[in-house]
Amino acid sequence: MATRVILEVQQDLLSKGHKFVLTSRFTQDCLENTFSCIRQRNPVPTPAEFHYALRAVTVGQFLTTIPTGNYFDDGSDHLADFLDSKRSSCSPPPVVRLEQLDDAASPPDFTKTESCVLYHLAGYIVKRVISCSLCEECQSSLTESENASGRDVLLRLKEFKRGALYRPSDEVFTLIQSVEQLFQATSVDSLMESTNAVAMLEQAAMKLDSNLPSCHELQKKILTRYIRLRLRIASKFISAAKKRHTGRVL
């Protein structure tokens, strides 16, 4: 019955001037595959679980290629240098000097979207720091109840339960924003190849002014956690880019 209906629809469309009909697009396989991915963890998801799972599946399919798939991303690269061999360098990894970080050019101001992402990352750092044993003064200096600048747009979208995510104080956000500017002003390749990137970034960041309480070394804890997190994020992007390039070449 279904096959007969599709043939009749095809005949009707072709008679009206259409050159071809993609009959495979009439199926719901894509929709069923999406639902099966959503129901992997919970066969009967709640609205919040469905929202989270659908977002994860959608974003994941756009950002990465399925490892078990039989295709690669089409980057439209030319294959003129396909057989060219690259000489490997055995020289020791470079060392980042503190003078390079001090003399780095200042990057442009952050966009609203970048500020929202950075605000969300700052909240994560605050959560990790607060998990340590801190006094009430330190805890109150790290968080705020509301943000009037509009930087918490992304945080509110990711917050299924009101108050579940931490909102960093203006002092913490300003500090992390300065560290991010320092990171962006430095060559990422030189940082990832260096053996002392964390130490040099921490040393340069500790020169930044901060009014945070000094009883529990909050500035050092925040800077150390954010710098290590930022380097991990950068390394993941570099590894993913190299993996995509290797996949296209192979």
UniProtKB/TrEMBL annotation:
Entry superkingdom: Eukaryota
Name recorded for this polypeptide: Uncharacterized protein LOC117540270
